Structures are given as structure tokens and as C-alpha cells.
């Protein structure tokens, strides 16, 4: 991965697991291994996409990086600061530099606050500027994301999904963060609105020099907004490459399967389109992780080796793939 | 062109609670309950000021039926004016009801919020304590408190509060656990809100609706509880309450039933009104019924 | 060819707090045996209402059938007695829903739920119905169907549950299968499996499918003909290829343009051009005026748009004053 600039966020060996309820008093406690030893960098001013299906650990990984979920192992360096070593007050102070846009525009805004107060809250909490300046800043943010400042006195339920997501974006931008974690920011929106939000996110990145850690299950969206993409499956990164490499020459069979399912108008029933090499079944449970390659059970070209031996993520000078037979 | 982004016309900034109020007003039974309650409270506050007969004075012979000799409700077993007693009793009953409910809510919210917010060991300990109080036989426990610490009004209030806060604690905990996992709580944490703010400024206001409903019903059950204790002669003998009037006059229930019936009806109407209000609040807070 | 289902000028109103609103305004379309009609639009456009109306499942109150007709094989359904509708529902016309978890009863085994439908509509004995249920589970591609028949819904994955829903839907050899966003709640790889299954079933049993979706990619892959809906009206209708390649209505153009679709060209470009946007949001139904509902968001709007345009043309029909016929 040829980046000249130092990454703004660098994650090394991140693991997250959740304890499950014991089965009986003397039962052994099981752990759900949501994220297993992953590493990635978010280049400054660029977008790293993490793509995967539900249960792949992509959201958990992102939330653990900014300490909204507790990680069991790993090192996260943000602008040279080791986040996992900070005290909770130091971490709180750091939060003004890293913000989040959540998936569900209906549950990510407190229904009892006016939207102006919602956008202003980060400024209040971080003591940015004086009270008067904060109001002006909120008005400015509203305009920046395409809302009218006179809507500040309204409550979230008076807005549509797309407008609420704009409010979320305004809140995330309030403290001038360097990094924004976007957790499926458009998956709950209608396509027409999705396009508006995606264009807005890209415009803001260009104007403000933001870096995004962008979580999505939709490869079409990821292709549009990301520079670098990591594909996650069952808590691990199975392939990581630049956008062009990943989309033109996918190597991991899971990446190929995902690409097969991404939105396309070219696959016509009228032209007799049929899917080839269909991936079968469902992903295995993160409570019971297979010994070999996690994808082997669903992979059309799995061999004995894949079932028994876990492939390492290896970097070939251009991209990283975790597959025993990437080029077949 | 740019303006087309902006959609929604600015309508009145309807506070979420305005909607709740709108729903509540639509519920006729609840509004009736509220009016009745209001009248009872007015009588309790202003009655004794305008009707100056001392409820402790023996003004006429015992058990004079209602209406005779100018005594609207008649007199009790000592010949005291029952109307004056009822108005005085209303003050006590409502005061006990409100303060016990307040205490219940205070303890319940504190315990429930801490247990629901900090899981793990804090929750374990707090919930075990809650369960301990829940399995105590309520009447027996309050009798013990009153027997040990004396039958003063504050002690009775504490006794009632101590046995009824568990329901509020459980509701609060459940609501906290539900709301804590919502994204706006994570969002507040992500912008640097501290735990206290998360608990009391972000989660609590959203958890309040079912707690308010429970608190309203709690006022009713506290009034009933106090009446029960007074009836059993376990309350302060110097303080007149509705339950005490019933208890004092119960010996002659067959001859002079009015002296028992009148306070009985007062308790019934008050508790019913409170229940109607609580029910109305519950419906008004329940978003599933909205927009119809 | 005689249409299997013919909907004419269907009008459905709802009583809301804003007064009576028209949720479906004069929808007309036919479904022929063995074909797939795709109904596409954003949330709230009336596509699900249309499906519920065909099933006779519009909740009333607040819903009101205000006019029009639904003919199934020549038989009028809008005036048919409830008993006849019950007979048709789940028998000749069946439906699968978006959320397979909530459409299955959690306290019964899936085999029993399939068998119950069979017993209800075909009067078979319990044993026959159970045998058939297992056979159906095999048809919809559930491994170990005999064992799975005695599973409860929560023991199955989302994809499996949707397969069970399809098994129930096809258990009585329906003529029409109405699929309301059948894959929206599923992961993309599983989504592909369900699409494939639906196509296999269509080929094997010759069932006509009415597929409701917001996803143009699904339309391309699944539909023979398409109806595009906006704010309670069908605004464009025709062959899938015609609509995808030569969309006539500005809204359809916008919908197609705003998809971040994959393609060779976009994979190789350094930065992708912004997505096409449809500005603004769908107007709420109670604020619809006399004119074209899309005019506020339309670049081509002019004076004529103050009058609502009629759906004109065959086989490619468009409801737009600016439309001058297929350019191709």
C-alpha cells in the first residue's frame, strides 16, 4: 500500500470478544470472538472502507478503535497517540478529534432534544469557543450539511431520514474532527437520499480534509467513497487493497462473491443472466470458529488444506489476501 | 436549486411532550380522573380553611346521621364532625400518598439507574438487594418498622416507601438497559459525555414515561396502604386519616354504616381517579397508539 | 393473452391525523401468467399498499378502498366475500414479506407451520401434509429437511427463514406470488441465493411473481416488466429493458442515476464523478397538490406540470408532460 503520508489512524492486532451468558452456574463461559487480530491504517485525508456482512465484526472493529467498545488486545495509534493507554478523561478530550456517524438516523438522535442543541452539544461538552460563537457555529454547520438554520428549534421526529442523517453529520463535524467513523451511514436510507448523503460526505471530505473510516455492506457504496478497502469475514480481514485493485482484480473468493452481489443494472433477466459460482449457506457462528479458513465451508473451491489450515493475510507488494489459492 | 435540499417547512417546534399532552386530552376517562383529583386536592388544601370546625372537637352526640343538626356527613363515635374529619383526613392521605410515591421513585430510580447503567458487579449487588425487599411480606415489614420506630407520619411514609420502591427500580433498570444500547447514547459518548450526563441527561428523560405512570399508580397504592395501616391502628393515633376514620368507627358498622362508608367512598374515588390518570398517561406515552 | 391479475384505477385512502390522504391513486397494471412484474419505488410510494390491496389485507380502519377494481382470472376481488379471499390468500395468491422473523410464528416448528397451510387449503391429512412440508423444504434448498422441519424459527438463520417463508408461499401451488422486499433484511450473499431460488421456482411451477423492491439491481435481475411508483402513483411502466435503458420519467432517470453501481469504467477511474442526485425529499401524502407530485424536485418542470400528468403510451408508458416518446 503505497502511502506517502503517515496514516492518521493505525490499528495493530485488534481483537474484541464478548462474554456470553454461562450455560448454568458451573457451565464454562463462552466468548464470542467478534474481531480477531486485525490490523489496518486509515491514510490521512482518505477513506478506508471496511466491508462485510452482518456478523463480520466490521462495526465492532470500528467502535473498538475509538474505544466505544472495549477491545481485548491491540494497539491503536491516532495521530501518534496510543489511544488504549489514555485515561478515560484523556480519551474524552481526544474525542473532539474523532467523531462517529451512526447507521440508524431514527435512533441516533436523542428524541427529547432540539436538533440545534444536538449539534451544539459536542461544542458544549468540549468547551469549544464561547456560547455566542457556538450558536453561530451551529448555524454554519446546518448550512454546510444542507439544512436551514431556522430548523434548529425543531425536534428530530420532525425530519425525514435523510435530513436526520444530515443532522448527525453536522454533529460529527462540530468540533472539527480529523477522523470520522461512518458506520453504515446510508444503509437505512432510500436510494435517492443515499446518493445525496454520499455526495455530501465526499464534498465535505474534499473541503475539510477529513479522513473516513467507512463501514458498509454495500460494495457499490464502498467503491464510490473509499480509496482503500478491507474486506472482513467472521472477524478477520480476508483481503485488503486499493479500490482499483480490489474491484478490477478481486482475489479472495469471498470478495468475488460480494462483487457478484453488488448492485448492477447489467445483469439482465432478459439476457438470460444467471449467477455463477454461487456462495452457499450462511457464515459460521462466531462462537464456534472453524479451524481452517473461516470461509472454507462456503467456498466453491475449498480443498482439504483450506479446512485444516488457517491462511495468513499476506502482502504481495500490492495487496493483502488471506487465501491458500488466491489466483485460481 | 440548493433550497430543494431542505424539504420540511418549519412547522411549530412541537416538543415531544406536547404530543403526549394531546393524546392525554383525547382520553376522556383520564381527563375526568384528573378533574376529580384536582377537586379533591383543592378540598384538602382549602376545605379546613373555610370550614373551621375543629375535627377533634366533640360537637354533638355520637353517630348523628348525615344531614342532621347541620352536620353534612354526621358525627363519629365521639360526636366529632365527620366532614371536618374527612377534610383533615384528605390532607393526610394525599400527603402520605405523594411523599411515599416520591420516596419510592427516588430510591427506585437511583437503584434502577445504577443497576441498568453499570452492569456487572454493581448490578448484581443492587438487584439482589431489590429482590430481598421484593420478597419481604410488605404488611409485616411495615408493621415491624412502625413497631420499632414508632407510629409517626414520617415513619409510616418511610415504611410504605421501603416496601414499594422495588417495582420502580425494576422498571427503571429495564428501561436503562433498553435505551443504553440505542445509538444516541453511543453518540453522546462519542462526543465526550461523561457517565453522569449519560445517565441523567440522556437516558433518564427517555426512560421517564413508564416510571411516571408507575409513580402515579404508586400514589394510589400508598393511600390504600396508609388506610390499611391506620385501620389496623398502626398509625399515629393523634393524626386523622381516612383509614383511621374507618378503623375508629368500624365497631359500629352495622348501626352507623355511614361513618365507615363515607371515608371508604373517598378512598375509592381518589384511588380510582389516580388510576385513570395513570392509565391515560400510559396510553399517551405509548407511541404505538399515536397518529390515529 | 388474458392477464392473470388485472388491477384497474385502484384508489386507496387512509384516515390520518392530517385528514384523509390518498395512498394509492389510480394504479392500473396487469400481471400475466409466468411473468415477473417488478414494482419499484422509495418508501411510502404505495408499493406495499398495492400488494396488501391485492391480498385484501388493507387494514380498515384507517384504510379505505375508494375505487377501482382488482380482477383475478376475471373474478372481482374488491367485492368478493371475506371467505373467498381467505381461500385465495395463501392458496392461489400467496405472499412473502420483508422480515422473515416476524412473519413466522415463533412458538411453532417450521414444519408444522408449512403443514398447517397445506391442511387448511388442500384438506390433506396431517401425515400427508407433513411429508409434503419436508419435500417443500427440500425444494427451497434447506439442507437436512427432515431434521429442519422440527426446528423453531429462532433456530434458523435469516436466509433459512426466508426459504421457509417461500416454502409456505408455494405450498399450495399459487398462481401469483407477491414478494414484498423479500431480501432487504438479508445479507448480500444470501440475497443472491434467494433471488436464484425465486427464479428456479418460477421456472419450475410457472408462477407469476409481483416483486416489490427499492433496488433497481434486483429489478434488472428479476423482472420482465416494471412499474415505477412515486407518491401513490404509477409514473412509468414498461419492459424492464426499456425502463432501465431508456427511462422516460425524470424520477426514473434519477433513481437509476443515483445508484453507486459497479462497473469496469468506475473501477479504473482515479476519482469517481458525483452520483446523480434527486434533490429534496418525497412530499408527504397530505401535502400533495393537484399537480405532478414530482414537479418540486424536477429539473424539467414547467407550467404544464401544475396539472397531474396521465400515464400514456404502450408498451412503454410514462406519466410526464415533458416526455416525447422513446428516443431510441
Oligomer: heterotrimer
* SS content category of chain B: mainly alpha
Q: What do the pLDDT scores of chain C average to?
A: 86
CATH architecture of the domain at 1-85 and 229-265 and 274-290 and 308-323 in chain C: 3-Layer(aba) Sandwich
Distance between the termini of chain C: 27 Å
Mean pLDDT of chain B: 83
Which class best fits the helix and strand makeup of chain C? alpha/beta
- Spatial strand order of the main sheet of chain C: 6-7-8-3-9-10-11
**Number of strand segments of chain C:** 11
* Beginning-to-end CA distance, first to last residue of chain B: 35 Å
- In the CATH hierarchy, what is the superfamily of chain B? MetI-like
Our estimate of the beta-strand percent of chain B is under 5%
The largest sheet of chain C is: 7 strands, mixed
Morphology call of chain B: elongated
In short:
The complex is a heterotrimer of chains A (328), B (292) and C (328). With 328 residues, chain A is an alpha/beta fold.
Question: Secondary-structure map with pairings?
Answer:
The complex is a heterotrimer of chains A (328), B (292) and C (328).
Chain A: E1 7-19, E2 31-43, E3 47-51, H1 58-65, E4 73-78, E5 81-82, H2 88-94, E6 98-101, H3 115-126, H4 131-144, H5 161-173, E7 179-183, H6 191-208, E8 211-216, H7 219-225, E9 228-233, E10 236-242, H8 243-248, H9 253-261, H10 304-308, E11 314-315, E12 320-321
Parallel strand pairs in A: 3-8, 3-9, 6-7, 7-8
Antiparallel strand pairs in A: 1-2, 1-4, 4-5, 9-10, 10-12, 11-12
Helix pairs in contact in A: 3-4, 3-5, 4-5, 5-6
Chain B: H1 16-26, H2 28-50, H3 82-117, H4 121-135, H5 138-149, H6 153-180, H7 183-190, H8 195-231, H9 242-249, H10 258-285
Chain C: E1 5-16, E2 19-31, E3 36-40, H1 47-54, E4 63-72, E5 75-76, H2 82-88, E6 93-96, H3 100-103, H4 110-122, H5 126-139, H6 145-148, H7 158-170, E7 176-180, H8 188-205, E8 208-213, H9 216-222, E9 225-230, E10 233-239, H10 240-245, H11 250-257, H12 264-268, E11 317-318
Parallel strand pairs in C: 3-8, 3-9, 6-7, 7-8
Antiparallel strand pairs in C: 1-2, 1-4, 4-5, 9-10, 10-11
